[in-house]
Structures are given as structure tokens and as C-alpha cells.
Amino acid sequence: MASLIVSFSLLFLLTVHTADGFLHSMTGTCLFNSTKADDIAYIESYYFNKLKFISFDSRVGKYVGYTEFGVSNAKRWNEGPEVIQRRTTKERYCVDNVGNDYNHAVTKSAEPYVRLHSETPPAGKHPSMLVCSVYDFYPKQISVSWRRDGQEVSTDVTSTDELADGDWFYQIHSHLEYTPRSGEKISCVVEHASLSKPLVTDWDPSMPESERNKIAIGASGLILGLILSLAGFIYYRRKVRGLIPVPQS
């Protein structure tokens, strides 16, 4: 598994307004991939109108300038008390806070949910295709596989990469092209850090999905029609009860 890179930062802004409008800013950032002090770095950077002109990196241990003005200030700060203060910032600012941030990021997880459906396959050697769509899981690492009558399927299977939703969560889609056999059992198996055991979803071939959708839509329409009819009948009965009969001469 790739190492987890997490960062948190504080941003301090100092603005000086003139006729043209200038912006001077400084950022202080902690980078870490574990709670060990050797895996933590503190970076402090200074910008003028979005151009970085000087920075301090605890892994380097001194200020480095990127412009003429930055180079001159780096030389002065490296010879003064500023660099000594910055060398202790990692311990004071980062090490004391990394534990909470790291544990929160590592332990965050969300269980996936699975939708198994059929689609018309592209031109190929099989007449049928199943799609196992897995949604809203975190962290990113996940395993999606297929079983046919209890045996893992390794051919005619294609999968997308883990796709980021942009809100911490991911989705992935696996396709199985196959030729149906009577009485067989096909399952999609999902393994993820948030699950205590593999999540197995069995395919029900008793009725094509399009037909099931038609029945569901028809049933919904029937229920809605009955509700409207009942409401109309109740309204009619109440209206009739409120009428006063007029004697006929």
C-alpha cells in the first residue's frame, strides 16, 4: 500500500494596500506520513503577489531565497536568531499536532454499497454482460472480483480504476462478459478495509432488469391511480352529504 501523505497548514496574511494593491503572505505547513518525528517536515514560505521569494524547510535546516530580495533575506536570517527559532518549530508546532490528524485520516472509512445489473455487451464472443458497480467507499484501496458457481472468474473481466467522487469517496465498476448457463450462480465479491468480511452480491437472472423496471413502474402507477380514485370518491361523498334537497311542487 502506498504511504499516506497528509498535511495541514495555517495561513497568515499581511496586506499592504496601495494604489496598485499588493499582497504579502506567509504559510506554515506540516507534512507527514507517520507520527514519527523523522517522517515530519515543517515548511514556511513567504510570498509577494503570489510569487514565493523565500522559504524554510526543516529537512534543509535553513532559509533558501528564490529572488534577489529573498536571497539577501535568507542570508541575513540564516546568520541571525530567526533560523534557530524555525529549527524548533517542527517540534513545537507539528509533532504535538500530527498524532490527532494522522489517526483521524487513517481510521476514516466508509462502507461501499453495490449495484449489480445487466447490460448489452459490446460485440464479442459472449451474449451477456453483468456490471458490478461499487459506490461511496473510502479509503481508495478495494478489491472487486467475480465468482461463478463458487469459483473465481479470471477471464472476460474488465474493471475501471477507482474513480474519485471529489468528496472523499470513490466508485469502481467491474464488467463480466459471459454465456448464461441454466442453474448457475454468479456473484460479485467486494473486499474493503471498512468490511469485516467480503460483501457478496448474487445475480438474480429470473427476470431481465428492464422487465423488472417495467413491472415496478406499472405497479407504482396502479397504486397512484387507486389513491387518486379513493380521494375522489371521499370528496364526492362529502359533497353529496352537504347538499340540502329542494322540494318539488
UniProtKB/TrEMBL annotation:
Record-annotated membrane-spanning stretches: 215-236
The UniProt record lists the keyword Transmembrane: yes
Signal sequence, renumbered to the chain: 1-21
Lipid bilayer topology: Single-pass type I membrane protein
SMART domains: IGc1 (SM00407), MHC_II_beta (SM00921)
Keywords: Disulfide bond, Glycoprotein, Membrane, Signal, Transmembrane, Transmembrane helix
Compartments, as annotated in UniProt: Membrane
Chief localization: membrane
Domain Ig-like: from-to ranges: 112-200
GO CC term, one of those recorded: MHC class II protein complex
Single biological process term from Gene Ontology: immune response
Protein name: MHC class IIB antigen
Gene: Cyse-DAB
